[in-house]
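Entry 14. Structure prediction run on the chain below.
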Amino acid sequence: MTVRATLQGAAIAAALCSACAAPVHDAPPVVQTPAAFKENANWKPAQPGDALVRGRWWELFGDPILDSLEANVTVSNETLKSAQARFEASRAAVRGARSALYPQVSAEPAVARARQSGNRGTSSFHNVYGDFLLPVDVSYEADVWARVRNSVNASVGTAQATAADLESASLALHAELAIDYFSLRGIDREKALLDSTVAAYAQALELTQNRFRGGIASQADVAQAQTQLEMTRGQAVDVGAMRATLEHAIATLVGQPASTFALAVSPLDASPPDIPAGVPSGLLERRPDIAAAERRVAAANAQAGAANAALYPILTLSGLAGFESSSFGSWLSSASNLWSIGAAALINVFDAGGRQAVRDEARAVYTQTAADYRQTVLSAFQEVEDQLAILRVLEEEAAIQANAVAAAERSLELANNRYRGGVVSYLEVITAQSAALVNERAAVNLLTRRMAATVLLIKALGGGWNVSLLEQVSAGGS
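Output returned:
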């Protein structure tokens, strides 16, 4: 049989066996998606072309300092660098898996000088001889049961899932920074409120002391005014601890030592931007964690196909060609050439159910990843509904709180006027002061919570990310 005939026979056998391989269907599990968000009835609808800023969603808040900090997260955050390294490792794994689709070529040249024992049972040859060997070995596993292809597909799916994991980590870190930033700015505003209140209380104390010296007010009024002033001063100092903690957290997020990082005081005065929630089915395209879960389903499905292929024989095509001689001078002569070509099948006759167990395990992993995917989708809908509900409630509460602040300020003004007129004791002024401060701080807290809820809604909606970005991590591009 000629070399060509041998190769043609092996190729035909491989093609016939490939036709018998069961295909692996790469389709995500079916998930029921609602027609609309429950909490989206009074929300801003998404218009054609109306979407979050792609990638840099924090620019929606119009804060240059926040923009600068978020940019530092992208390039300096160590957690993000770790996720990037995991992604690069998964891309390398894809390249490694794809190499099995091609023949493996190796060369093992050898030069030896040896003497064979003259007392060896098969020969009395006892002379010193040389052996000059230059072989080139080619081997190729015919992927007749799609084992290699499924392994490649599994690696590609894992790489794509890791890419989505990277985006999920980036989204979470950027959102965490934005929440910490707005919380810090809220504290700055609360500190400014307390400082102005301390100044007002100091003036009230001075007035009360003057009235006491004039015999109009009592010593008790002076003591109450002093108590109110010092208590508020303590509150103004206390908020500094939380501000320092948030500043340190922001330093870590942007990749800087907390000891060398500082943010200038800047009270929060922005309003939450309008965020279009869109339609529920859009979450399946815009959430990187959903994309990661879906890609893991595809990887598990491909891995199950590879495990199923292990039940069938492995067909290997191999060939060897080269030169061998006992002397260097005749090493490359025509008489020194050698070659061999052939095909081999590895058949596992008995393994006590080992391969079946591997296949069953792979199928169970696929079932697990499918359930994880559906759970991820359900959790995504919950997060969006939660933040839509929180924003709706907080917006209503903020409007009511604004009325409460206005009423408390009028009450304080009336109490001060009545006290100056000698109609009431200073206790009424203290009560009005406390009510006004409590309501003003509550209004600041509500604004901070609304900003944080807006960030969390953007995060729940995927932050402007889209599953089409995963196309760059494909079998052909990795």
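Residues 141 and 316 are 4 Å apart (CA to CA).
Filed with the rest of this week's runs.
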